[in-house]
Amino acid sequence: GITNAAFRALCIEGGAGLVVGEMVSAESVKYGNKKSLKLLEVYPSEHPIASQLFGSDPGSMAKAARAAQDLGADIVDINAGCPVRKIEAKGSGAALMRSPEKIEAIVRAIRGAVSLPVTVKTRIGYSPDAMNISEVAHAVEAGGGHALFLHARFATNQHRGPADWATLARINAERAIPVVGNGGVTTAQDALDRLAQT
After folding, report:
1. Cis? peptide before 48, omega within 30° of 0
2. Which regions of 48-146 does DSSP assign to beta strands (E)?
3. Could you give the CA distance from residue 108 to residue 188 in angstroms, rounded to a whole number?
4. Rounded to the nearest 5 degrees, what angle is found at the Cα of 140, between the Cα atoms of 89 and 166?
5. Residue 82 a catalytic site member
6. How far apart are CA 127 and CA 104, in angstroms?
7. DSSP state letters, 48-103
8. What pTM was computed for the model?
């Protein structure tokens, strides 16, 4: 309800290099839910845009990715980092971090279904005792992902506490694909500091 088309268009007008659509359920798209399909529609004023999908079934995710491509997306982004309970309860969002092999299968399925770049948004781990971002990042790259968007906090922290930019820098060094960091950036100076750090 925040990153709607009007908001995204304003961001592009203001100089944003990329905007991301609202998170959309792949299962809803698979069954032709009109509201979900409407969320995937892209207007001429909001390019370049990534359509962000969540789900846990590679086939459903591939079908939803095709719909996103048909409706104007420039990038398909897989959400493997959302910590909301109702998303996780279905094995989606941050719950996917527990199964890097499933992330790889989803990325591979989407790559086979669309001609667009495929990216993944995730966290540095599900929790401090389940920090497997190296395995998850490897899975994204092995599946053919074009980039990784990495929120430098654990899913259990949601948006609280300091972001672990040292871990983000390590993952960036480990992977051949681009790693784009976020978390804890609240000013222009924060962004410049993070760019210098990583």
Report:
1. yes
2. 49-54, 75-80, 118-125
3. 36
4. 90
5. yes
6. 20
7. SEEEEEE-S-HHHHHHHHHHHHHTT-SEEEEEE----HHHHTTT-GGGGGG-HHHH
8. 0.93
* Interatomic CA distance for residues 30 and 62, integer angstroms: 9
Cβ pair 94, 123 in contact under 8 A: yes
pLDDT in tens, the chain (198 residues): 778 999 999 999 999 999 999 999 999 999 999 999 999 999 999 999 999 999 999 999 999 999 999 999 999 999 999 999 999 999 999 999 999 999 999 999 999 999 999 999 999 999 988 899 999 999 999 999 999 999 999 998 888 888 898 999 999 999 999 999 988 889 999 889 888 877
Rounded to whole angstroms, the Cα distance separating 95 from 118 reads: 19
The CA distance from 128 to 79, in Å, is 20
How many helices (H) and strands (E) the chain has is answered by: 9, 7
Question: Tokens at residue 22, please?
Answer: 């609202």
Catalytic: which of 82, 95, 120, 168?
82
